[in-house]
Structures are given as C-alpha cells and as structure tokens.
Write a structure and sequence with these properties.
By secondary structure, the chain is mainly alpha-helical. The protein is 67% helix and 0% strand. 22% of the residues are buried.
C-alpha cells in the first residue's frame, strides 16, 4: 500500500491534481468510509473491523451506491432472482441485517460488477486495489509511450493529423485490458494442460 500511495502522490504532483479529485470514486469503488480513505491516503493506519460487520456494510454500500439514473437502487426482486433467494431474505441482506453466504456474496459481487474480494478486503487492500488503477491511469496520462513500451508494444502506427497523446493513452488502456483478460484465463488453461499431460 505504501509504495502505491507514494507513487500516487508523485503522479498527482506531476499531473497538477490533488487527492480531492479521486476521493469520491475511491469511497464508491472500495466501500471504505471517507474518513478511512483520507487516513489511508495520508499514510495512517485504520483499525481493522470485524469481518462480518465489514461484509454487511459493504453489501449495504453496494445496494445504496449502485443506483439507476433516477437514483433508485436495484429492485429487490431482481437481486433476489440473481441470488436464487426470497425477496424477504434479500431485503435483510441489503439492509445489513443478515450476512450473505459465501455463494451469495460471490453472486452479489458479480451482480454489481465489482471485484470478487469487494465484500471482504481490508480497507487498506481495497484502497490499494483501486489506487493501483488510478496510478495506472495517471502514468498513462503522464507518459503513454513509456507505459506502452512497458506493456510490450514496440510500435504504434498513428493515423490522421489529430493523432496524439490521448490516442496513445487509449491504446495503452486497451492493451492493458487485453493483458488482464488473458491473465484471467492463463492459469485455468495451464491447469487444464497440466492435467492433460499428467
């Protein structure tokens, strides 16, 4: 966490930004409270909470923060259908009155499109995960050619008179996304190949 935080601070200065730019998104994308996000960004430690309390709070956070264009949370019946559960039990979960099972927690993460450890990660780990994404974005903004080289791109043929840094940044994000997608299938493929060869 410390290395990511230090790099984040360096890049903010280089790009002429400050932490206020990212705090709302960090709170939304981690489920960590704003005071704890600020403390962690300042290099302070926050006390570890009870894991069950953390899971309940983060489920509530997902339900309350992921809303439609009118600011309404997802329909309880839709969440219940995804969980293969009753609306009554689902209401208790999203209200923080019951802990989801491991399976239900996994389904909730999929339903809301968040990382699989969203409900359970410590505040420091959750912040580090999201801060890493911001650091990457800032590094792309600061020097897209260097990031492309680090990703293994040797040559980009730009087209048109307006081709420039923004386009290189978009290419860097695309290549990073492809690499991340490939990484998610490499391990299962390696296991399959190892099983077939054994």
């Amino acid at each position: 966490m410390d290395r990511t935080r230090v790099r984040y601070r360096e890049l903010l200065a280089e790009c002429g930004l400050d932490t206020e730019t990212h705090i709302p998104g960090l709170v939304t994308n981690t489920g960590v409270s704003e005071p704890d996000v600020r403390a962690l960004l300042n290099g302070e430690h926050v006390p570890l909470d009870d894991p069950d309390d953390r899971v309940r709070r983060r489920v509530c956070h997902l339900y309350e923060s992921r809303t439609d264009l009118d600011g309404r949370p997802a329909d309880i019946r839709d969440i219940a259908a995804a969980l293969n559960a009753t609306p009554t039990w689902t209401k208790k979960i999203v209200a923080g009155q019951a802990n989801p099972s491991l399976t239900a927690g996994h389904v909730l993460c999929q339903y809301y499109g968040v990382p699989s450890d969203f409900l359970t990660a410590t505040p420091a780990d959750a912040l580090n995960r999201e801060l890493g994404k911001i650091v990457f974005d800032l590094e792309v903004k600061a020097d897209p050619e260097r990031i492309l080289a680090a990703l293994g791109v040797r040559h980009v043929a730009g087209r048109g008179p307006n081709w420039g840094g923004d386009h290189l940044g978009a290419v860097a994000h695309m290549v990073a996304g492809i690499r991340e997608s490939l990484a998610t299938v490499e391990e299962p493929l390696a296991r399959l190949e190892g099983g077939e060869g054994g």
